[in-house]
């Protein structure tokens, strides 16, 4: 059996918490006082699967002059002490098993445990550390997600400035950022409902997805936000460049939109279909994060190229009219726009 499937089988049969416990380098008396830490979940030098080990037994296990030292239990106790204590005896560690070491309950426990241990260690002069896969993962999540709003704001500002300089307009980049945000909100909301089982309210009714929901991998929005922003902005630039070119040649705003859609719309849709097809193969992945990344990219590309760029953007630009290009002054429209072939035919007549 592949290691990935074997690990999943272990998680299913024994629980994720047993495989990824929290390791605490601190005296066990302090840990017992941490809220939400049942004794049976603690294993350390003086606790074996939640059962306290009397210090007298530990002393007798290391005393070669006692009969207890030569028993199997005495040997086990010596092994336990040697495992959980340093050779100098100046530090010990123990581990705490949580049901889901990566979930919200464990996150709250980790923050409470650190707050309590920090307070006690300052009063008693102890040093402590909490490690383990769950703690590392939660710390990484907190650090990345804390910086994520800054990434969103910086990306939006960068897109706004670049498009503003490229098109000499204020409303074009503003409209581009807002329409891209519409696509992203739709995609991430759909992912949350389909994969996360998030409740949503409709006419005061709370509805939930009727299927089993594995939850949303926290890395998915972080990994896909900038990629999707770049793709959607690229499609937008391709469309608006064609519209602006025709408007600069003297076509009216509405005629320029129609011409831009006619010349570039098919290419944008084809590019989106190719991108969606390329990522659709990852939908069959058994890895949750990879599967959800593929779902987000495929849905975002199709929604953006088929709906947002083909319907929403032209509609908004038609409503804005000449304000699309403000503060750049466009030449007056020469009348109804005719393609070059029709102009040549009209000139001959």
TrEMBL record:
Keywords carried by this UniProt record: Cell membrane, Membrane, Transmembrane, Transmembrane helix
The organism's place on the tree of life at top rank: Eukaryota
Localisation: Cell membrane
Keyword Transcription on entry: no
Keyword Transmembrane included in the entry's annotation: yes
Boundaries of every Membrane transport protein MMPL domain copy: 80-331
GO CC annotation terms, alphabetical: plasma membrane
Topology versus the membrane: Multi-pass membrane protein
Listed InterPro entries: MMPL_dom (IPR004869), Mycobact_MmpL (IPR050545)
Pfam families, alphabetized: MMPL (PF03176)
Residue ranges of the TM segments: 146-170, 177-198, 218-243, 264-283, 295-321
Family in the record: Belongs to the resistance-nodulation-cell division (RND) (TC 2.A.6) family. MmpL subfamily.
Record-linked PANTHER family: MEMBRANE PROTEIN MJ1562-RELATED, MEMBRANE PROTEIN YDGH-RELATED
Name of the protein: Membrane transport protein MMPL domain-containing protein
């Amino acid at each position: 059996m592949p290691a990935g499937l074997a690990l999943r089988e272990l998680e299913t049969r024994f629980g994720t918490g047993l495989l990824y416990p929290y390791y605490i380098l601190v005296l066990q008396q302090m840990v017992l006082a941490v809220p939400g830490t049942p004794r049976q979940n603690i294993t350390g030098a003086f606790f074996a699967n939640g059962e306290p080990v009397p210090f007298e037994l530990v002393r007798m296990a290391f005393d070669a002059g006692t009969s207890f030292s030569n028993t199997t239990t005495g040997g086990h106790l010596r092994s336990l002490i040697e495992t959980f204590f340093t050779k100098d005896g100046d530090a010990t560690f123990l581990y705490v098993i949580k049901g889901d070491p990566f979930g919200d309950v464990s996150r709250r426990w980790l923050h409470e445990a650190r707050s309590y241990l920090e307070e006690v260690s300052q009063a008693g002069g102890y040093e402590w550390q909490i490690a383990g896969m769950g703690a590392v993962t939660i710390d990484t999540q907190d650090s990345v997600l804390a910086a994520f709003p800054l990434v969103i704001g910086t990306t939006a500002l960068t897109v706004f400035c670049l498009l503003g300089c490229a098109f000499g307009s204020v409303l074009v980049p503003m409209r581009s950022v807002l329409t891209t945000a519409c696509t992203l909100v739709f995609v991430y909301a759909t992912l949350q409902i389909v994969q996360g089982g998030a409740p949503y309210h409709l006419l005061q009714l709370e509805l939930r997805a009727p299927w089993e929901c594995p939850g949303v991998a926290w890395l998915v929005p972080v990994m896909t936000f900038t990629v999707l922003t770049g793709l959607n902005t690229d499609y937008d630039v391709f469309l608006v460049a064609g519209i602006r070119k025709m408007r600069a040649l003297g076509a009216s705003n509405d005629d320029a939109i129609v011409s831009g859609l006619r010349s570039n719309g098919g290419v944008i849709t084809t590019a989106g279909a190719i991108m969606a097809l390329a990522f659709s193969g990852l939908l069959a992945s058994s890895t949750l994060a990879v599967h959800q990344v593929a779902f987000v990219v495929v849905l975002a590309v199709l929604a953006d190229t088929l709906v947002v760029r083909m319907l929403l953007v032209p509609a908004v630009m038609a409503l804005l009219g000449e304000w699309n290009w403000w503060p750049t002054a466009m030449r007056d429209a020469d009348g109804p726009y005719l393609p070059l072939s029709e102009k040549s035919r009209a000139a001959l007549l």
